[in-house]
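Need a sequence for this fold. Nothing fancy.
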């Protein structure tokens, strides 16, 4: 008998993927330019020239044996050192190479972290709307995902709801800012309040609650907004990072986990990551791409494209009568459904050849997500259809 749970999981495609597949089929039927596909968070901006150049240089000038050979399970030492130094320079932390574990993207960072921290029955609290894979990763690590609603309109943390949710089984709180799917960035006030609450709660309980920050969109912020770095506010914190979005390297699978050296038991946490990585087979992230991220440390792709898309889409949709959540980062816009059932709204949008994902998939009913990481041309050509969609609701 096979593992029924995994067989079942393997047979259900996420509704985002389902919609993406529908989009591909529809494009083949009526032409690529006539379908406005906002389903998937796949970066549309090319990798920076510095990335292409560094890649060519590595392949042409690097040692062809070691470049494609194994590194240490947790990643090459000089790569981890460069990640630690970059974080220290930006955030005044005191991380060493031994606080960094190189991974195959944020998905692996999260899966390893949950497996390192959780015992059977432990709970991880996160906030709706949230990235749906969290539930899969937490449950696979033997834990339970507990979802707490966010404040209405601002989508910052609802602290009353959080206080109610904290309990003796809470092992960690997981945040994601800039957020997928709302695009909201937590203010410093929110982060400070969260950390103070967790500090007090941990003290009272006599056992720590860990803070995990999933931040693949850290650099994608607009209009001078900054993303507070959790390690500056909370000692028992772990950052799960990825180069998928900021360098448009989603298909190359490269990221890292950083453990805060201020945590009393940081070395134990790190050992837990190494053990979990080993048990999951997440060892030695692709060596070529480890070297690449070291070579282009501090670079990002041209995020002005996303900012322009956001500005155009936000102002047009607001003008047509839609209500949107103000996004300060990532490349998603959360739009209030004009009817109570966001799935019905997404279905109606489909009739206008606009592909949107219902918020239900992110644990938040009544909204749809627009992934605007598309070419500016797609935004431009989609606007008349958005207007017609609004008119169909008499907005
Ligand atoms: N976390 C969030 C919030 C995401 O949106 C994504 C991908 O879209 C991931 C994690 C996984 O990222 P990666 O491609 O680096 O595995």
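Here you go.
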């Amino acid at each position: 008998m096979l593992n029924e749970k995994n067989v079942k999981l393997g047979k259900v495609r996420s509704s985002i993927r389902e919609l993406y597949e529908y989009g591909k089929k529809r494009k083949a039927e009526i032409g690529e330019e006539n379908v406005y596909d906002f389903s998937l968070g796949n970066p549309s901006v090319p990798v920076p020239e510095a990335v292409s150049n560094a890649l060519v240089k590595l392949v042409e000038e690097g040692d062809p044996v070691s470049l494609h050979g194994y590194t240490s399970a947790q990643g090459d030492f000089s790569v981890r050192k460069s990640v630690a130094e970059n974080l220290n320079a930006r955030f005044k932390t005191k991380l060493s190479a031994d606080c960094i574990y190189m991974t195959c993207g944020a998905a692996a960072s999260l899966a390893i972290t949950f497996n390192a921290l959780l015992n059977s029955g432990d709970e991880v609290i996160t906030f709706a709307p949230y990235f749906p894979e969290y539930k899969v990763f937490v449950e696979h690590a033997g834990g339970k995902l507990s979802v707490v609603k966010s404040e209405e309109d601002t989508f910052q943390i609802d602290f009353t709801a959080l206080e109610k949710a904290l309990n003796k089984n809470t092992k960690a709180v997981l945040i994601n800012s800039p957020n997928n799917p709302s695009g909201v960035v937590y203010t410093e006030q929110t982060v400070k309040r969260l950390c103070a609450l967790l500090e007090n709660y941990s003290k009272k309980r006599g056992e720590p609650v860990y803070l995990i920050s999933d931040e693949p969109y850290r650099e994608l912020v607009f209009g001078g907004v900054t993303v507070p770095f959790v390690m500056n506010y909370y000692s028992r914190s772990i950052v799960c990072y990825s180069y998928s979005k900021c360098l448009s390297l989603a298909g190359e699978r490269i990221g890292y986990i950083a453990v805060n050296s201020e945590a009393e038991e940081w070395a134990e946490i790190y050992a837990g990551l190494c053990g979990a990585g080993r048990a999951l087979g997440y060892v030695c992230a692709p060596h070529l791409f480890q070297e690449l991220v070291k070579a282009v440390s501090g670079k990002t792709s041209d995020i002005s494209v996303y900012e322009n898309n956001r500005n155009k889409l936000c102002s047009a949709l607001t003008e047509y009568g839609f209500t949107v959540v103000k996004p300060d980062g990532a490349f998603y816009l959360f739009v209030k459904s004009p009817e109570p059932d966001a799935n019905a709204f997404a279905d109606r949008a489909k009739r206008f050849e606009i592909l949107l994902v219902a918020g239900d998939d992110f644990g938040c009913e009544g909204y749809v997500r627009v992934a605007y990481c598309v070419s500016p041309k797609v935004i431009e050509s989609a606007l008349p259809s958005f207007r017609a969609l609004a008119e169909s609701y008499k907005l």
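For context: The chain has two domains: 4-47+301-392, 50-295.
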